[in-house]
Amino acid sequence: MSLSFGRTGVVALRVIRQLKRDRRTIGLIVFAPIVLMILFGYALSGDMSGVALGLVDGGGHAALRAHLESIKDFNILYLGSESDAEKLISEGRLDGAVLLSPGLVQVLLDASSLQISGAIAGAVQVGTSREQASLVAASPREGTEKEIPIITRYIFGYDLEMMDTVGPAILGLVVFFFTFINAAIAFIRERSQGTLEKFMVSPLSRVEMISGYVLGFSLFTLLQSATTLFVVTFGFGVPLRGSALTALAVVLLLGAGALVLGSFFSNFARSEFQVVQFIPLIITPQIVLCGIWWPLQSVPEFIRPFSYILPLTYAAHALRAVMLKGAGIGDILYPDLLALGIFFLIFFAAATLMLRREVG
Amino acid sequence: MGTQAAISARGVTKSFGRLQVLDNLDLDIPSGVTYCLLGPNGSGKTTFIRAIVRLLRLDGGEMKVLGRPVSEVNEIYSQIGYMTQHKALYPDLTVQENMEFYAGLYGLAKQKRVERIEELLRMVDLLEHRGRLAGALSGGMYQRLSLACTLIHEPELLLLDEPTVGVDPRLRQTFWDYFDRLAGEGKTVLITTHIMDEAEKCQRVGYMRAGRMAAQGSPEEILRLAGLKPVLRLWLAEPEKDAALLRAEGYEIDIDDGVVQVRLESHALIKEILAAVSPLDMRLAEPRLEEAFLRLSEAA
Ligand SMILES: Nc1ncnc2c1ncn2[C@@H]1O[C@H](COP(=O)(O)OP(=O)(O)O)[C@@H](O)[C@H]1O
Ligand SMILES: [Mg+2]
């Protein structure tokens, strides 16, 4: 059976007609981003007030470390390496970082917020002099001879508010959530209504059917992401430095992935209500591990590989690059778009294979 | 298609776990007929239909559909119209939109699509409801719409799983007339039902019990096979005398509460009987298929 665009289009048109008639869905498209922005943007921003300081502990400097940890305004994030620290500062996620190694203290500071940089530098100064003092107390002769060297380096990051960090991820999140749930429900209905059985006995192939769904839902993804983009940028003042079209392309690919994932998982639910049970299993881990609310670098290492198989991680990263740094398609092809593409293809194949004709 | 069988099944078996649902089933359905597959609930009718369209794989036996081995049936799906017991429709689409969807799936051209939808909606009496959501239709209307959607692409072979449940008698007659017309055009219509009355309207009937064919043939053949004959009941002025007279002529006679009952080999004999006796009143009781099947399945 050859692939027919006509039949694919027929399925797409039907899906659009159904979605259009679903008031709940239309409401969700508009209100979900507003609610999520308020929830994540404001609620989390309370937590994140103060100075975000990275600490790479390569040994030594117990007194300096204790001093930095004792400062109330500092939120300390323990990092594994210098490059992690650099990356997070350049992304505007950290205000600075202190790298400790025996006999050396390096300070990385964000050049874009001088006030905070000053506070960090000052704290390091105070901390090292205390350390010096305790060394002198322990062995008066050696301590005075060796000053602890401090190397300070500036990195160009930018001054971001929590809203800005969260905004791009919300865009990915609402599309992923909406498409996954709706697709799973739609496929469960196809089964319970008997329409799936009827498809199986028609010229429509499984690939055409899933493609039709992808096409139909894509139109809604566009509508939804345009709305969300509007809410996030105009309503909450999140910058859009790159092209809106690039952002929409990322979201379309993410939405397509969520659709085939939903179709695949619909095979494991008996009713529409059971779809709800997928939320803690499929959606929540992505929210937690996508690297938006707290940086991936701070996720424990044994969980981190999970972050890198979840599509929202890549979508959020790409959207942040597009919206905040003005990245173009070329900048996010690898790894983000590639990963989203692979994810889509894998679950497209899986969803297609699960639509078996023969049973028993 | 000509004289070729639309469906032929030889020694077909299927079980679900330990439950043997089709048990060495033989069945032939010639093309161009209306065939009624009759049987109580759970006898395996739906299973058989699903095996025809290969929604399930047989454990054993051979089956041909429109001259092709059942393993190739997916290549002729466009010639098959399958109405499932679930009445596959989208409740959140309108009557018209449901029809358009199925028309599109089978690739009907625009002009053709408009004509077919019009014609079929008229046949199932839903023309004035075309703008309503399918989910808001009554059970019978839903059923009718499902039938219309199944017919949209003018299939050669129609497989209708309990299509008349919940359809009122007047409309049911319209359906049967339509099915007869289709059969006249050389199409094959297979209908399952658990209602006996329906079967009498078909050209051929098969009675299924516990996964086997207990009997098949035309309704008349089935009656004959079961040894059932029409009975003429006569109210006579002198029942004893006339009964003796008819007996002498070789008729099979019973007297029940003063009413003389004659079992007829054929309807043509009524004339001869009326030449011999003059009843005050009379009534003809046709044998019921139900009775025939009951007998046949007891015998089997
Ligand atoms: N997929 C299945 N798995 C297990 N049992 C089944 C399945 N389909 C049908 N059956 C069983 O097979 C028997 C025949 O069912 P079915 O063909 O639907 O009968 P009918 O259509 O004549 O009412 C029933 O006992 C039914 O429970
Ligand atoms: Mg059945």
Features:
heterodimer; A: 360 residues; alpha/beta; abc type-2 transporter like fold; 5-stranded mixed beta sheet; 15 helices; 5 strands; B: 300 residues; Rossmann fold; Alpha-Beta Plaits; 2 domains; 6-stranded mixed beta sheet; 4-stranded antiparallel beta sheet; 10 helices; 14 strands; 28% strand; binds adenosine-5'-diphosphate; binds magnesium ion
Q: What can you see in these coordinates?
A:
The complex is a heterodimer of chains A (360) and B (300). Chain A contains 15 helices and five strands. Chain A has 360 residues and is an alpha/beta fold. Chain A has a five-stranded mixed β-sheet, sandwiched between helices. The two termini of chain A are 24 Å apart. By secondary structure, chain B is of the alpha/beta class. Chain B is built from ten helices and 14 strands. In chain B, strands 6-7-8-3-9-10 form a six-stranded mixed β-sheet, with helices on both faces. Chain B starts with a strand and ends with a helix. In chain B, 42% of the residues are buried. Classes of the chains: A alpha/beta (360), B alpha/beta (300). The structure holds adenosine-5'-diphosphate and magnesium ion (MG). The site of adenosine-5'-diphosphate has 11 residues of chain B, from strand 2 and helix 1.
Please, how many domains of chain A? 2
Bound molecules: adenosine-5'-diphosphate, magnesium ion
- What share of the residues of chain A lie within helices? 55-70%
Shape, principal axes of CA atoms of chain A? elongated
Work out the helix count of chain A: 15
- Please compute the radius of gyration of chain B using only Cα atoms: 23 Å
Order of helices and strands of chain B: EEEHEEEHHHEHEHEEHEHEEHEH
